[in-house]
Structure formats: structure tokens, C-alpha cells
Amino acid sequence: MILTGAQRPLTTIGIVLLLLGLATLAAAAQSASGDGLGMTCSDGYGCHTDHPVLFTVMTFGYRISMPLLVAGTIFLAGSQTLSALRGTDADRTDTMSTQEQTRSASQHVVAARLWTLAAILVLGSAALGIWSASPAGQSVMLVSSVNRSSPEYILNQLSYVLVPAGTLSGFLVVGLALVVTRAKPSVQHPRHESDKQDRTMWDGKSHDPFKRPDSTTQLPFDRE
Fold first, then answer.
1. Where is this region: Disordered (predicted)?
2. Nearest 5°: CA angle at 23, between 54 and 63?
3. Could you give the CA distance from residue 78 to residue 133 in angstroms, rounded to a whole number?
């Protein structure tokens, strides 16, 4: 398959993007906890932060973390898709060999992995979205004595990135899982020996194809 050469770069880039996305989320969680990295606002003095450069970097990272997570997930899922589709467009015969049976089993394994990943992403994102939108999740943000370092508060803040990123990634992985599940090998009948001889290229040495027919051979138009 032509695209199999892209499998390793897709895996590498996907891992790098996922690590960058998770790092930006960790930095955003640290900033949301209010440990000297957030903005402090008051009526008389406005808003300020003790680390403006670090605050800017973390805020920017938080905003681009969603495309990083989505791209990283799709790159890894795409790498698995290419590994499952490898060799499906090769020459096939009516009888499946041991290698072809192994490839078919590997395709089913990859399809199961993709369906599982898609279910985790979609259902997990839906659960987090429902909790963060519920009164219980909103009360974590609206109470007067909010604990900015509590896991519930940080998770609610991160839900604005995790929910859309997980949902979008899940639906895209569903598409890849469908491709792997429905992919069928192109079956081609074996060529007969006569077909192979007819398609043999002239080696440039034998001049038999260019010789005049033997005079003893009766041509069709010589028949009475």
C-alpha cells in the first residue's frame, strides 16, 4: 500500500502532539489552582499577575490544547488504520494463505481497538460534559468560598477543553473504525500460464516473431 510509509511518522507526530496537549493542560490546571500564576483583580488596583510572561504562555497553551489533543489522537488512530489496511490492495487469489489470514485477524484487532477508543472518548466526554453542566458541577464554581485548588474546580475548568476535544476525536475515530471494519481485500483470479506467456516481453535476441511463415504452411486465404 502506498501510504504505509507514513505509519511511523504518524505515530511519532501523534505522540508528540498528545504530550504537548497534556503538558498544556497540566500547566492550565496549575494556573487554575491560583498558586501565584493566576490573575488577581481588585476594584481599586485592577488585575495583575506576578508572572505575566508565564501567565501568557499558559493561557495560550490552554487555548491550543484542544487542537493538539484532537490531532494527536487522530494521528495515532490513523497510524493504526494504515497498519490494518496494509496489503489489502495486493494481488489476491481465491484461496487465502496463512499470511492473509493473519492479516485479516490483525485487521479485526485494530478495528476493535478503534471502536473501544471511540466509545471511551465519546462516552467519557459526554459524562464529563453532563457533570460540568449539572447543578452539582456548577455549584463548584459558584459558591462564595470556592476552593480553586480542589480537583472538582480544576476538572470543571478543564472540561471546556476536554469535552469538545474528546467528542470531536471520538467521532473522527468512529470514521476510521468504520473504514477498518468495512475494508475488504481486492480479490484477483490467478493468471493462467497462457496469459503469462502472452505478456512476456521480447528479449531482443530471438527473431522468431518477425520471420515470414513457412511456405509449407497453408494460410487461411489459400484454402479452396
1. 185-224
2. 65
3. 32
